[in-house]
Amino acid sequence: MMVVDHTRTYRTIFFIFLISALVFCFSKKADAKDLDEILDYEITIDVRDDARLNINYHIRWKVLDSVSEGPLSWVKIGVPNYHAEDLKA
Is the pTM of this model over 0.85? Predict the structure, then answer.
């Protein structure tokens, strides 16, 4: 009968467990808080004579946190396709 030494296997399992425990002990919890808040919005759609649409967005928002992610430098509201024209900010 052959005797098998499992010391190396147990040692490997122990080190994997130890490293996993250390990773979880020293990891940080993500703090996801709101960066800004939409206070009011209005979307108006006017139909042209040729059935195309004029869509106007009026959005009023309040910045809640401009420090953690930096100041707001851009806003994307919808993605116009190649038919869009007369884009104004």
Answer: no
